Amino acid sequence: MSSIMASPGGLSRRHFLGHMAATALSVPAAQFFTDLRANAADVRKKHRSCIVLWMSGGPSHLDIWDLKPDSEKNGGPFRPIATSAPGVQISEHMPKTAKQMHHLNILRSLDSKEGNHERGTYLMHTGYVPNPTVVHPGWGSSCALELGSQMSDFDLPHCVAINSPGAGAGFLGMSYTPFMVQNPNAPIANLKPPGDVDELRLERRLQMLSQVENQFIGQRRNQMAVDHKAVYGKTIRMMNSKLKNIFSLDSEPAPIREAYGKGSFGSGCLMARRLVEQGVSYVEVSLGGWDTHTNNFDALSKRLLPELDLGMSALVADLAARGLLDTTMIVWMGEFGRTPRINQNAGRDHWPRSWSVVVGGGGMKSGQVVGSTDKDGVDVSDRPIGVMDLIATMTKTMGIGIDTQYTTPRGRPMKIVDGGKPLPELIG
Amino acid sequence: MNSRQGRRVGRGLRVSAVAFATASGAALAWAIFAIPILATAGDRPASKSSTASQASVSAAGNFLDPLLEAAWKEAGVKPGKPASDEEFLRRAYLDVLGRIPSVQEARAFLSTREADKRGKLVEYLLNHVDFPKNFATQWTTLLVGRSPQGRMVDRAALTAWLRKQFAADRPWNEVVYDLVTASGSNRENGAVNFTLAHLESEAVPLTARTTRLFLGQQIQCVQCHDHPNNDWKQSDFWGINAFFRGVKTEDKNAPNAAGLEAYDHTELHDEPSNATARFEKRNGMMGVAFPTFLNGVKAGHGDGVIRRVELGKMITDPKSDLLPRAMANRMWAQFLGRGFVNPIDDIGPHNVPVNPEILDKLADAFRDSKYDVKQMIRWIMTSRAYQATSLRAGKGEVSKGGDRDDSVFNVMQLRPMSPEQLFDSLLTATSAHKTAGGRDDAKREAWMKQFLFAFGNDEGDEATSFQGTIPQSLMMMNGELMKDALSGKSGSFLADVLEQAQKQGRAPAPYMIDQIYLAALSRFPTAKERHAAMQYLDAFPDSLHVLQDLFWALLNSNEFILIH
């Protein structure tokens, strides 16, 4: 069944070639093809992965990464502390992560216009604002397509989302939809066939299934028929794989489990490490509850930050210790930041105008702060960073050509990176 | 664009469809094909050349067809080729009843050679007891979502209320009016639950859902800022929101089974109000909105004014085309896989329809039919677009324009079943519920929850179907329901097939194979498929295992789960 790991057949995918047609004059063909081959080999060897720590609800950046102790109105009760990165300070409630900051960078000047959860989530996952004419693929799905297709002999899904479904694959189709792990502390449901179905019967079932699937596809219908088979192919492959126990944390030593924390976020981070170790391209781990319109400071100091601090710091330290950090990019983000002004309920509201994202690993430079906001945290005072700049940085770090583009079902081109530039502060 | 204005058709000679005594037992399922169909295709003027304007729901007299044909010509695509009987049968059952046909139903339709059997099938389905049930299920999801609601929302009462409306053929404008204005006990008046479900956050969710569902307008984005792509302003959102300012709720207790006072139901009522909706603008200033409809008309003042009643009147104002257009586009999308406008509830000048004229005509016809939902379904299902096959013409890869061919409705889209369709179809095919003591709503809910991965989506919305994820495939392959379905226990479909086969005088194998194909795929096996299955049965002594495996394969296939 492994032969049915289909590439996106009906999807007319242009990749570099489409771009070349547009810029034929600027890139000599010979050089273009050499680059292409070199690039593929390079990625295979270096085996890049990305872990996104997704903070759903819109985390309060001003109380985590960009504290304003000198702002009387907006500062809030938290104090900044020094970190392992010279001159970089973060919240006192992130003491363990503070010791890992030399591996990470804080981008303090994100700037978007989407202050609605749904739209902000879409924007941060795809790089695009929602548009009625097309459903953009999540960046993770594009990643799975680009990097996964270079490692066709692979038993696991290339794109995994832990604790929440992540972004969809948009027009790339269902075979690039993230594999969702609902609860990293529980076994994957239904992974085994029922007891009375032995290997012989499973084989017979798959033969029979293959016949009817192929016949239906052969009758020429739309892409969904092909995608269905591809998903089943991946599923069956995983069912039969030696790696299927990768989703069980039981074999991890107790001190490791403790270090990450045994909640769904900590366990998700540990699972993410296990997955990238095997070569999964994109893993997203969610931690929800950041929509702190009321009692922001209590929620952060008692509940959210301790859990985040444990999981995030353990993940960075563990990846570094295993030599995986150079090839694994970490991105911490949510759909927007929160208002500098503290409302009458001791909460902060939605704020997409000036906020923070944290990135590191994957061969980036580290230990830096890029961009800044003013004294009260209201406006970007230096180096505004657009969401597409972030996407460009992530794309380049992963070794994916930032010129990569697809053709949407309506026949229009869609670039993975549309108008953004990788941040030179992070990429040499 | 305004051509529809001058062509309003006079009130119709609508002949209501004959309500057939609904076939309650499957054994009666095909009896209807012997009954002459008296329902009319309706009050639309057939094209002048047509002589079939009376008493027929067949494709021949459908007013949509000339428009579709013109659209195909203009787009330079080949006209839709008709679907086979098998294709049509399956999609019609799924779209109208929310499930695949049973073996008996499939056999009845496929074997009859009556004239206009498709038209008759449409009529049969629209009069089937599962039609109001299916539409009530769908609209419950649209109105209050799939995730379990708080105790305030009596989902079952809402579903029961909707079922009554669809069973009674209530005009859509009246149903909508009732949903928008309902008050009283949420247990006795199920319609109340729509409003109850969305009152949190100053009724912001109610504002968004009301305009999306009934008017096809997405104004939720302008809650926080004016819209960049269309004309909506922040004040438009809060103007609608202000209509909900007088709504009050009260929880009522009553003695429970143990004789203790406990929560019983919630009462909802309106109080006359002069309150405005206040909102924060981007610049930090406060805005104030009076109850104002999307066309700028304000609600009246004074003691007797109930704001939701005012809103209900404005939404259903016969002079406004928002309501019929929204429903026409939604119904078209439900049956064809895509709306004229997509997303289907974002209609407006900023989002040009694929075939504006067809949408206009369908919406006008719907209004002129007095918002007759069944009549609209008849028009859609008997149109050449709905009758088109999902097989693509020609050879080779999808043409350069991607799926452009599909966008003008000359080829039927493949669509994934909704979870409800999938569940009910699995039960129809396998009788899994009969092995475990009846169709159990709690079991269905548990299954759905697992299937949907309900948690994690903060917006808790309806936009989920078979996404083709690995966990969903695992559930289909190895899950509990499939185990029950294939168990071969007494009462199950497989047990019945084996029993029937033994009673037969002639060779049982071909009969068993036919039954399994009909049950799962609503068609007979091809010669090749039959031969292959026979070989398996010959080669392995345990025929139950072979049949189980074959059934498993068919139920897991793309052909089963995709509506085609």
Automatic annotation (TrEMBL), chain A:
InterPro entries cross-referenced by the UniProt entry: Alkaline_phosphatase_core_sf (IPR017850), DUF1501 (IPR010869), TAT_signal (IPR006311)
A Pfam family this chain is assigned to: DUF1501
Domain of life: Bacteria
Database matches in PROSITE patterns: TAT
Protein name: DUF1501 domain-containing protein
Organism: Paludisphaera borealis
Automatic annotation (TrEMBL), chain B:
KW Transmembrane (keyword) present: yes
Keywords: Membrane, Transmembrane, Transmembrane helix
Stretches assigned to the DUF1549 domain: 64-248
Chain segments annotated as coiled-coil in the UniProt record: none
UniProt KW Membrane keyword: yes
Transmembrane segments: 12-39
Domain DUF1553: 307-439
Superkingdom of source: Bacteria
Protein name in the entry: DUF1549 domain-containing protein
Lineage: Bacteria, Pseudomonadati, Planctomycetota, Planctomycetia, Isosphaerales
